[in-house]
Amino acid sequence: MVGCASGGGIPDAHARIREWSRVEERVVTADQDPGLTCPKDVADPSVSPYRVGPVNRALKVLSVIGEAQGNLTLGQISVLSGVPRSTVFKYLKTLEEDGFVVQDTRSETFCVGPTLWRLSRSRNLIRLLSAAAGPVLSRLRGRIKETTVWGLLDSGDFCVAGVEPGPAPGAVRLQVGTRLPAMGSALGRAALAALPRARLTHLLAKDAARTSGHLERMLADADAVRTSGMAIEEGERDPKVWCCAVPVASVGECPPVALGVLVPRLRGPRILAPDGPYFLPDLKWAAARIARSLGQEGQSGAEPRARSAS
Fold first, then answer.
1. Using one digit for the tens of pLDDT, what is the confidence trace for 125-146?
2. What residue ranges do the domains of the chain occupy?
3. Which residues belong to any copy of the HTH iclR-type domain (predicted)?
4. Quick one: fold of 125-299?
5. Which fold has domain 54-118?
6. What digits encode the pLDDT tens for the residues 194-209?
């Protein structure tokens, strides 16, 4: 084995190679996409290690377009966002494909696209629904002493948007954001009943294809809920829980909404009567009150007198 004349020669050479590699890495990275990343030894300690540079810059580009008073050119977007023109161009083409931005080919300018408008409208609808349903749900819970819940149809499922846990011992607990099968839950069936027949048929046809269900039977079930004004669930989905739900009258482009009362199985049989649960008038009054708050014509009427399960 050949030795080295200088004891520190090989380590020094290795150190220089590592340093050249780091310099080359910084140069290549900057050429490919300035600011994309940097070695840990020169990284900004104030920046989260989980931060993704391209995503951050794409969001800057989108924010600049969204906050503008009018359409913007490629150059204007680059200046306002601080992102190089070539990178902005790539981001815009990607955002345009997904509908987040739209290009006016005549003026070669960009503006907010339909996808962002839909997201904004959905957020405003949820805020409006929460403001209308929250107080009514709380009042309803106080009257019947059981867990009350509201939610809306979303992509073929029923999504729980608000819950007021009942004060009684053993009251049912349910998390906001829980997704229930539309046809497999009382809340989902009640929300479906608020849909116009043509839209209901279209939605159930897709569900029938996905679940191998029978469309005619599903339509008949929805008609029965619409006729009676309520949907009952006697432990089919969860053996420990009974549920009674009613639809909220459809308002404009608002997604179908339903209200429900969740009751523990042991108290379930006591709530049923030939004409429905003892709290059904309260539940229907609450649904009418929410519809009225959302702009639906008609009166919710006087609040029903409190009734008990006994």
1. 777 778 888 888 888 888 888 8
2. 54-118, 125-299
3. 52-114
4. Beta-Lactamase (3.30.450)
5. Arc Repressor Mutant, subunit A (1.10.10)
6. 888 777 787 777 766 6
